[in-house]
Design goal:
cell membrane; sodium; 2 strands; ion transport; 393 residues; mainly alpha; transport
Length: 393
């Protein structure tokens, strides 16, 4: 279990799952798996009737978003975002990392009718970005790690808001109200989770969570928002314990299953000139837009706040953070699915663009982070040598 908690291992498993999905989709087994993905599974006696693909993206992924929300709440309470002064600089960088990729995407798709896909390149896969940082960034100063962590967390908040606001169609206010009651009941039960009736309370919370998810799905709001709401509502200390239990499940099963399912795409047998505008918009916006947006936002944020409290972030460090931000994967794949629902060919091209754009970002980030780590390693060596010479004198 401890191995799958590793950021490096989680990132590797996610990448391998996506690669296998893409490869298998383009073998003779591909069409059969895609038909299975589209097969519907209904729960008898309920209005819930989803395809296998939607049970994965709407159901399993809600657990991932629950874990993300718990981490967000903890960071706001006692972590890297527990004060305005800590949050404002990465927030400005994160905002730049949303605006610039969105503008690049819109520039590529203007007049094509696919402008609504602008949220796709705005997301960052926090697990994957931190995995790349863990693999290549040994020895990088803690201030840069903290900045990147805060940046990725804030980026997740923006992604959640985008899903809630822009991918909700014809909301049913009655079901939304009932779901809100479910969230309130979940919070109330979580306050009693540490008592003598922990087991029955936990079971009851699980039932309430399932009902709340169902109501959210039926309300027209994307069902993953239920996971966010429940994660934010749960009392922090027991929520962190639940997160610890769920982390191996999300890293080792849920995210790889989603990555495999999302990457089940047949590579179009067309010339590059025949690919739809969203493909090029996403492909460029993820690596290029994120680097420009985050670097520019990070530079602007260096003028915010008292001079003595401003973090010293070099241009190289900001470029590395921007490249890490371009690793979209999980949330970008989800947004692609939502933006182009019912437009299968465009959605498939969008999936390929997310995978390619994220892969390019990984390569760029690996190079920049490795160079940065090597620089700080040399700097530490020089300092240690200077100290040794002083002691010898």
């Amino acid at each position: 279990m401890s191995v799958i908690r590793s950021e490096r291992v989680a990132a590797l498993v996610l990448l391998v799952a996506a690669a296998i999905g893409l490869i298998v989709a383009n073998t003779p087994a591909g069409p059969g798996l895609m038909r299975l993905q589209d097969a519907h599974l209904a729960i008898p006696g309920t209005p819930l009737d989803l395809s296998v693909g939607h049970w994965i993206s709407d159901g399993l992924l809600a657990i991932f978003f629950f874990v993300v929300a718990v981490e967000l709440k903890n960071e706001f309470a006692v972590g890297q975002l527990n004060s305005v002064s800590k949050a404002v600089r990465p927030a400005i960088a994160a905002l730049g990392g949303v605006i610039v990729p969105a503008l690049i995407y819109v520039a590529f798709t203007s007049g094509s009718g696919y402008e609504s896909g602008w949220p796709i390149p705005t997301a960052t896969d926090i697990a994957f970005a931190l995995g790349v940082l863990a693999v290549f960034g040994k020895g990088i100063p803690s201030r840069l790690r903290i900045f990147i962590l805060a940046l990725a967390i804030l980026d997740d908040i923006v992604a959640i808001l985008i899903i809630a606001v822009f991918f909700t169609a014809d909301p049913n206010l009655l079901f939304i109200g009932l779901a809100a009651v479910g969230v309130a009941l979940f919070w109330l039960l979580s306050r009693s989770l540490g008592g003598r009736y922990r087991m029955p309370v936990g079971i009851l919370m699980g039932i309430v969570a399932l009902v709340t998810w169902s109501l959210t799905y039926l309300s027209g709001v994307h069902a993953t928002i239920a996971g966010v709401a429940l994660g934010l509502a749960m009392v922090r200390v027991p929520a962190m314990r639940v997160r610890h239990v769920l982390e191996p499940v999300t890293n080792g099963a849920i995210l790889p299953i989603f990555a495999f399912s999302a990457a089940l795409v047949a590579i179009p047998q067309v010339a590059p000139s025949e690919l739809a505008a969203p493909f090029w918009g996403i492909l460029v916006a993820l690596p290029v837009g994120k680097i420009i947006g985050i670097s520019l936002g990070g530079w602007l944020s260096s003028f915010v706040g008292p001079r003595e409290k401003r973090p010293h972030l070099t241009l190289h460090g900001l470029l590395a953070a921007g490249a890490l931000g371009g690793v979209g994967f999980t949330v970008s794949l989800l947004m692609n699915e939502l933006a182009f629902a019912g437009q299968e060919e465009v959605a498939d091209e969008g999936t390929l663009a997310v995978l390619l754009g994220s892969s390019i970002s990984i390569v760029i980030a690996a190079v920049l982070v490795s160079m940065l780590a090597a620089y700080y390693k040399r700097l530490r060596t020089l300092r240690e040598n200077a100290v040794d010479k002083l002691r010898a004198a």
